Each structure stands twice: as structure tokens, then as C-alpha cells.
Amino acid sequence: MPDGWTETKISKDTYITHIPQEQKDKWVADRHKRDKVDLLITQDGFHITPPARSGTIYYVDNGKLCEIYLEISGVKQYDILIYFDGLKEWILPDKKIMTEIEKLQIKEKLKVWLNKKKIKADI
Q: What is the DSSP string of 43-55?
């Protein structure tokens, strides 16, 4: 196991792995640097990371940024699978819980954006 990680056995063949928050924060910072989030936050709208097995759609609205996670689909019906239910908060400039109205507005705008980009998505 990497340094700092711990594992707790909770049954004969089940373990819980704890990853320190500092490590998780570093992963996020590295991803933000790679995806150039510091530039994206200045441009309202949706931004998708370069294609890979999984990725992120960033949404910017007046300097606020949130992340919507996606995976490449394994079926011809969809290009990507979007985990919209995981959208809970604005992450920049400060973490702030989203209202249900904000989520609905983002979802509708996302559908329009995906349609314009001709991306078939399961949301």
C-alpha cells in the first residue's frame, strides 16, 4: 500500500481502504492543472476534457465552476455516460452546495450543449 494509506478488515474477505485527504486533494489539483481549469473558469459554458476512458465536463457560470463526471460508453447507443446525480456542489471559487433549481438549469443547458456538439449521452 502507498505511504499513508490504511486498510481496515471488516469481515473475512472485505476491507475498507482509507486514503488521506491530502492525497485526494493532490489528485484533484493535478487534474485541474492538466485540464487547465484556471483558464476554463474565465469562460462561461461547458468544457469537456480530452477523450479518455473517463473524464470531466466542467461547467462555468459567472466565475463558479462545477464538475460533471463521465465515462466513455461501451454501447453504440451512447458516446458517453454522464453521472449527473453526482453533481452536488460548486467547487470553485469556493465549495458551495447547489440548489435543486441550479441543478435542473444546468441539466437542461447540458442537454442543449450535447445536442449542439452531436454527442450522444445517457444522463
A: S-EEEEPPPSSEE
Could you report the per-residue pLDDT of 48-81, keeping only the tens digit for each? 987 678 889 999 999 999 999 999 888 889 999 9
pTM over 0.90: no
CB atoms within 10 A of CB 66: 21
H helices present in the chain, as ranges: 21-34, 37-40, 100-116
Answer for the pair 106, 58: CB distance below 8 angstroms, yes or no.
Answer: no
Distance from the Cα of residue 40 to its chain's centroid: 14
Asked if 105 contacts 98 with a C-beta cutoff of 8 angstroms, the reply is: no
Residue type (1 letter), 102 = E
